[in-house]
Amino acid sequence: MGADALRRAVEVDDPDLGTVRVSTVEDLLLAKLDFADGDLDGLQGRDIGRLLMTHGDGLDDTYLRRHAIGLGVSALLDEAARRAGR
Q1: pTM
Q2: Residue 7: enclosing H or E segment and its boundaries?
C-alpha cells in the first residue's frame, strides 16, 4: 500500500505551509481498518463508519478492496460497509 498511497496522495496548497501532500480517503480508511485490530465498536470503527457514509459513493472501491485483501482486513471492510448501509 505504501508506494500506491504516495502516488495517490493529493497535493493541497496551504498559504502558511506551501504545498502539502494529503492521504486520500481510501488510504485513511485502510489505515483505520488496519489499526482497528478487528474491532469496529471503538473510535476507529466510528471513524470508518463516518468516512464510508460521507464518502461512500466517491470511493475507489477497486483500490480499497485490493488493499484491504492485502492487509487482511477485507472482512472488516465488508462489515463496516454493511453497518454504513453500503
Answers
A1: 0.82
A2: helix 2-8
C-alpha 82/C-alpha 49 separation (Å) is 9
Which DSSP state fits 29? H
Spatial contact of 63 and 1, defined as CB atoms under 8 Å apart: no
Name every residue whose Cβ is closer than 8 Å to that of residue 13 and which is 6 or more positions away in sequence.
19
Give 18-60 pLDDT, tens digit per residue: 998 888 999 999 999 999 999 999 999 999 999 999 998 999 9
**Helix (H) or strand (E) segment spanning residue 46:** helix 43-55
Place of cell 460497509: 81
pLDDT, tens digit (0-9, with 9 covering 90-100), for 53-62: 999 899 999 9
Q: Which helix (H) or strand (E) holds 84?
A: none
- Grouping H, G, I as helix, E, B as strand and the rest as coil, residue 22 is strand
